[in-house]
């Protein structure tokens, strides 16, 4: 072994110090520019608290060491122990939930494709999904939602005439799959102290605190962002290799009425991957009415099916958009990866990260009839006197879902109404 030349080692050390000084000077110069004071600095507690300006943010953790909620409010950060939650149970409930839903997905897809269908097995799977979802919602209420809401003082129904309180869920690990927004005992109607999240607060999701902080920043007008205050309406009723969606036409008609003169329609053969990506870059609002999918083995391969193929999460993530609202009336657009639950790789999250402030999406499949009903109910609450109010997405979705849940026997069928989520401020 030959020792380094001392002069060479000294030169390298001097070079490293010079580069470090140059880097520090460059950072100082950038941070002197307007709006860049905190460039590449970790966000302090004061900055994080801004994410709770409009309501608490609940970060959930489940591990073999501890299970708790870290709750951010405008007043500070507090820990809420969750003694009834065990990470083993979280994995078990998540696994049972996903297996039941996937079994039904497979049987439904087989029937829709025209393949020989085992109707008895299909109906057994339908019943099993409703029971599993009900059990999961009640377990999530007992172990997570109830202690969190009680700690925050959200203990009863909203006072008549007052706005609904807001709450943001930021789960991690296996908890990312659980229906936090719909947790509770929904079959116990008429309680003075309702045991459901849906009857106490408006729930939204955020993949990270930073994403919520960024989404809360004041937005310039559409023209200042080189986008139009118009709706990009993407409807595909007969995607290649997918079963037809007969209710897409009804959904399209409603939106064309509400956004008369303020929409761009890409329907069926005109809804190509290239045309849709180009349109997303120039419109403030985007609506997808089509088939969607989530690839649980390769999450970035999930996406929506268009006329000439699939617009994937990976392709979406390479873009940068300046939208205020996206509605994904498509299946499984808010579902993450079963193998990488911490990655939160969903189409909804991808759209939110890349510039759409508010995103409404679905977890797992819904029928196109239910999707059309829900979309109409949401948009009719957000469009008034010819104006569209995208920042009312969370409250409009909340009211529409409660209305859908309380219709007929739907309280006993959570698969009908519990799969719709809002991501954003």
Beta-strand content: 15-25%
When the domains are counted, the total is 2
Counting DSSP H or I runs of 4 or more residues, the number of helices is 12
- Inertia-based shape: globular
Largest β sheet strand count, sense and barrel closure: 6 strands, mixed
Could you give the distance between the termini? Answer: 61 Å
| Gyration radius, in Å | 24 Å
Overall description:
With 425 residues, the protein is an alpha/beta fold. The protein is 38% helix and 18% strand. It contains 12 helices and 16 strands. It has helices spanning 6-31, 45-49, 87-112, 119-152, 209-216, 248-258, 273-280, 313-317, 347-353, 368-382, 393-405, 414-417; strands at 57-62, 67-73, 76-81, 166-170, 202-205, 228-235, 263-267, 283-289, 292-293, 303-306, 309-312, 325-329, 358-362, 383-384, 387-388, 420-423. The protein has a 6-stranded mixed beta sheet with strand order 7-6-8-12-13-16, with helices on both faces. The chain has a 5-stranded mixed beta sheet with strand order 3-2-1-4-5. It has a 3-stranded antiparallel beta sheet with strand order 9-10-11. Helix 10 crosses helix 11 (393-405). The longest helix is centred in the N-terminal third of the chain and has 34 residues, at 119-152. Residues 406-425 are annotated as: Disordered. Residues 137-424 form the CHAT domain.
Keywords:
425 residues; alpha/beta; Rossmann fold; 2 domains; six-stranded mixed β-sheet; five-stranded mixed β-sheet; 12 helices; globular; CHAT domain-containing protein; CHAT_dom
Offer a quick outline of the entry.
This is CHAT domain-containing protein. By secondary structure, the chain is α/β, with parallel strands linked by helices.
């Amino acid at each position: 072994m030959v020792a380094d030349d001392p002069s060479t080692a000294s030169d390298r050390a001097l070079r490293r110090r010079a580069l470090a000084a140059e880097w520090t000077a460059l950072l100082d110069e950038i941070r002197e520019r307007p709006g860049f004071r905190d460039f590449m600095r970790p966000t302090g507690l004061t900055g994080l608290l801004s994410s709770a300006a409009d309501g608490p943010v609940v970060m959930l953790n489940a591990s073999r060491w501890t299970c708790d909620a870290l709750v951010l409010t405008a007043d500070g950060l507090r820990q809420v122990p969750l003694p009834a939650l065990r990470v083993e149970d979280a994995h078990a409930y998540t696994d049972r939930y996903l297996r039941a839903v996937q079994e039904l997905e497979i049987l439904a897809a087989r029937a829709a494709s025209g393949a020989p269908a085992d109707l008895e097995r299909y109906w057994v799977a339908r019943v099993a999904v409703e029971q599993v979802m009900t059990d999961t919602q009640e377990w999530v209420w007992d172990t997570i939602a109830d202690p969190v809401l009680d700690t925050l003082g959200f203990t009863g129904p909203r006072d008549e005439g007052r706005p609904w309180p807001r709450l943001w869920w930021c789960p991690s690990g296996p908890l990312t799959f659980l229906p936090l927004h719909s947790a509770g005992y929904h079959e116990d109607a008429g309680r003075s102290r309702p045991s459901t999240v849906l009857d106490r607060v408006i729930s939204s999701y955020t993949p990270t605190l930073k994403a919520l902080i960024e989404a809360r920043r004041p937005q310039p007008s559409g023209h200042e962002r080189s986008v139009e205050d118009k709706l990009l309406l993407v409807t595909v009723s007969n995607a290649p290799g997918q079963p037809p969606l007969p209710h897409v036409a009804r959904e399209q008609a409603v939106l064309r009425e509400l956004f008369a003169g303020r929409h761009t329609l890409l329907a069926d053969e005109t809804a190509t991957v290239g045309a849709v990506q180009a349109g997303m870059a120039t419109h403030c609002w985007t609506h997808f009415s089509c088939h969607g999918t989530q690839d649980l083995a390769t999450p970035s391969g999930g996406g929506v099916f268009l006329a000439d193929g699939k617009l994937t999460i990976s392709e979406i993530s390479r873009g940068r958009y300046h939208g205020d609202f996206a509605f994904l009336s498509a299946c499984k657009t808010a579902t993450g990866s079963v193998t990488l639950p911490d990655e939160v790789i969903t189409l909804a999250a991808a759209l939110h990260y890349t510039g759409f402030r508010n995103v409404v999406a679905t977890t797992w499949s819904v029928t196109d009839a239910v999707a059309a009903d829900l979309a109409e109910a949401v948009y009719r609450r957000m469009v008034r006197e010819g104006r569209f109010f995208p920042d009312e997405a969370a409250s409009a979705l909340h009211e529409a879902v409660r209305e859908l849940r309380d219709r007929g026997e739907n309280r006993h069928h959570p698969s009908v109404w519990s799969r719709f989520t809002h991501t954003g401020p």
